[in-house]
Amino acid sequence: MSTTFAQLGVPDSITRALEARGIIKPFAIQAATITDALDGRDICGRAPTGSGKTLAFGIPLVATVERAEPRRPRALVLAPTRELAEQIC
User: Domains, the chain, ranges and CATH?
Assistant: First the structure.
């Protein structure tokens, strides 16, 4: 049985948005990190290119931003190259 984003604790609004884009089940790096990140724990993941790392930190980031107070700093994402920054955005 495979894990779903909902089982990892991803909010319904984000789960629906992922499903609308055809993203139904998490990759291994996402399943290993999302729950801890949603619980506010620091995560450090390492995986090959194309394995889903961006969503592994992006999904918890969006969940946090959704419930953050307006007009407060919400997130800062650092990327080592312009190319990677463009992929993240």
Answer: 12-88 (3.40.50.300)
Q: What is the DSSP string of 40-53?
A: T--------TTSSH
Cβ(66)–Cβ(10) under 8 Å? no
Q: pTM (2 decimals)?
A: 0.83
Residue-wise pLDDT for 23-69, tens only, equals 999 999 999 999 999 999 999 989 999 999 999 999 999 998 888 77
Q: Which of 43, 29, 47, 34 has the alpha carbon at shortest distance from 8?
A: 34
* Alpha helices in the chain, H assignment, sequence order: 12-20, 28-38, 53-67, 82-88
Give the three-state DSSP class for 2: coil
What do you get for the CA distance between the two ends of the chain, in Å?
32
